[in-house]
Amino acid sequence: MKLSVIIPVYNGADFIEKSYNSIINQQLADFEILYVDNNSKDNSVEKIESLIQTDARVKLLIQTKQGAAPARNKGIEKAQGDYMYLFDVDDEIYPGALKSMLEVLENHPNLDAVFGKMVKSNKGISEIIKPNDETFKTVLYDKPYWGLFWFASLKEVVGPPAFLYRASVFKKIGLYNETLRIGQDTALDIKLGMTCDIAFLDRYVYLYFKHTKSTIQQAKRSMPRAFMVWPRLVKEHLPFYLEQETPKRFQELLFSQLFQSMGRQLVFTKGFVTRSRLKRELYNQLKDVSIPFLIRLYLSILVILPLEVLRKVYGYYVVPFTVKQLIK
Q1: DSSP 3-state assignment of 200?
Q2: Are 81 and 23 in contact (CB under 8 A)?
Q3: Among residues 174, 187, 279, which one has the least CA distance to residue 231?
Q4: What pLDDT does 240 receive?
Q5: Staple partner for 275: which of 83, 281, 285, 303, CB 3.0–4.6 Å?
Q6: Would you call the peptide bond into 70 cis, given omega within 30 degrees of 0 as the criterion?
Q7: Are strands 163-166 and 83-86 parallel, antiparallel or unpaired?
Q8: Separation of alpha carbons 232 and 228, rounded Å
Q9: Distance between CA atoms of 79 and 164, rounded to whole angstroms?
Q10: Quick check: helix, strand or coil at residue 35?
Q11: pLDDT, tens digit, 9 for 90 and up, residues 218-272
């Protein structure tokens, strides 16, 4: 089989039919659609089973372990295609996008993956005008260009539906990190960009549908960004650094983001005792690396005086100076 389309579903009944049509309208010949239900409480399963009755290419998988990462991993493990496309049930694919990405990988057998652009909107594809800045050119950079590019600027990261992977990629870099509640897709993309040969196709692949019920939007409302990025840094990027040789730029980005996040978390935390406990916990999670004296000193100051002005001095001057010395 050529292509497996993996679609995790959690209470996505309202989007099942639209997601199915989004794939069917790509006019591909050899594919399967794997819906992975992740403990939905609405009638998502019934709607998927209804599709199965009319289209044998549609399959239903059940993943009881909650989270996007376990659901995606279940689909990857059961998929039979040579290529894999990970789609979100509430998003939409632009016509011809999958065919274009398939052509790139088939014309470049050395590539592991290809990705394109995304549009963010609270409306559907039929309701908006697509930007006209596509060139449809295939852009190739040697690794680890894209990994460093995304690690340096998260605003440049595109979601999983912007990518088409060879199935062999997941044997090379592993699956999604199931210990991460959010950010597991960003973690995988950065690892992909650091270790694999990938191409950028300058065309819009999908529309990311922004709505208040999405997991990421709920997470953004419930915690400051400093707390959101920390698990990804210590559970994915730090082990990557410890387990293999990495370029200095990766090290610079890693330690800068780790130290910046530590300072921000302390300033956001109320109560001296709570901040002291948090600092010990953060140190413990970095027990495999040496935290410079200057960083420890300023973090201790922030525990006592959690002032934003001091955090800015720490972030703008102390962290850059210390990281520069650390990676010499």
Answers
A1: strand
A2: no
A3: 187
A4: 97
A5: 303
A6: no
A7: antiparallel
A8: 8
A9: 14
A10: strand
A11: 444 445 778 999 999 999 999 999 999 999 999 999 999 999 999 999 999 999 9
Residue 244 backbone zone (phi > 0: left; psi -120 to 50: alpha; other: beta): beta
Domain boundaries of the chain, sorted by first residue: 3-217, 223-326
For 247, the 3-state DSSP assignment is coil
For the CA atoms of 243, 245, 251, 253, the dihedral, rounded to the nearest 10 degrees, stands at -90
What are the residues whose beta carbons fall under 8 Å from the beta carbon of 318, sequence distance 6 or more? 294, 295, 298
CATH number of the structural domain 3-217: 3.90.550.10
Instruction: Please give the angle made by the CA atoms of 27, 115 and 83, to the nearest 5 degrees.
Output: 55
Distance CA 62, CA 74 (A): 8
Please work out, in degrees rounded to the nearest 5, the angle formed at the alpha carbon of residue 118 by the alpha carbons of 3 and 80: 15
State pLDDT tens for residues 256-315: 999 999 999 999 999 999 999 999 999 999 999 999 999 999 999 999 999 999 999 999
- 85: tokens are 């496309």
Give ∠ CA 104-86-62 in degrees, rounded to 5.
Answer: 150
Upper half-sphere CA count for residue 288 (Cβ side, 13 Å): 9
Q: CA nearest 165: which of 115, 210, 117?
A: 115
Spatial separation of the C-alpha atoms in residues 8 and 71, rounded to whole Å: 6
Rg of the chain in Å (alpha carbons): 21
Give me the residue label for tokens 């376990």: 70
DSSP 59-128: EEEE--S-SHHHHHHHHHHH---SEEEE--TT-EE-TTHHHHHHHHHHH-TT-SEEEEEEEEESS-GGGS
Q: Please tell me the distance from the alpha carbon of residue 36 to that of residue 75, in angstroms, as a whole number.
A: 6
pLDDT band at 69 (very low <50, low <70, confident <90, very high): very high
